[in-house]
Amino acid sequence: MVRKCTSILVGFILSAFIISMLILNISSYINRSNPEYISSIGPYKIMKVITGSMIPAIDVGDIIIAKEPDIDSLRVGDIITFRIPGNILVTHRIVDIRQDGSFITKGDANLQEDTGIWVGESNIVGKYEFRIPGGASVIDSFKDYCGLILFFMLLSFIVPKMNIKQIISAFYSKTSM
């Protein structure tokens, strides 16, 4: 009984993850003409890491999740994502806070602080919350027809095995004992 409930729950979680990744890809595709668009789920912004400036904390190919911060709560050591000229997103660590409230940042793998870049409230996109290691490969797999076909095949095997009523009844039978 426990094994079946666990199997159903894992299938449900996997399906929810895959469906949310597909929705993110579709929304990114639809909004690709807007260079300032960042995929998000509620207050959480989802971004793909394409450089190694934050290794070992964040690797190339990871997906990072950031949330719009309260600027006054940012401290030295926090990792933030900000926009620089050319509409480029950069995710680096705060190493100092200037008197005017702007931030000095540096990538963990970089030898020097970021120079010539003003980082302040107006260009901060979010504060790093967590990462999904290698998550970009999952998202990228949905960008071609083979990935979509694989997604629908996987979904066709998982969804029929899911029975929400069984999950709920198993949960309540365990908690009522």
Automatic annotation (TrEMBL):
Highest rank taxon of the organism: Bacteria
UniProt GO BP: signal peptide processing
Annotated SUPFAM superfamilies: LexA/Signal peptidase (SSF51306)
Transmembrane keyword on record: yes
Localization in the cell: Membrane
Record-annotated membrane-spanning stretches: 7-30
EC number(s) given by UniProt: 3.4.21.89
GO cellular component, one term: membrane
Top EC category: hydrolase
First-listed, main subcellular location of the protein, grouped into a coarse class: membrane
Keywords of this entry: Membrane, Transmembrane, Transmembrane helix
Molecular function per GO: serine-type endopeptidase activity; signal peptidase activity
This protein's name: Signal peptidase I
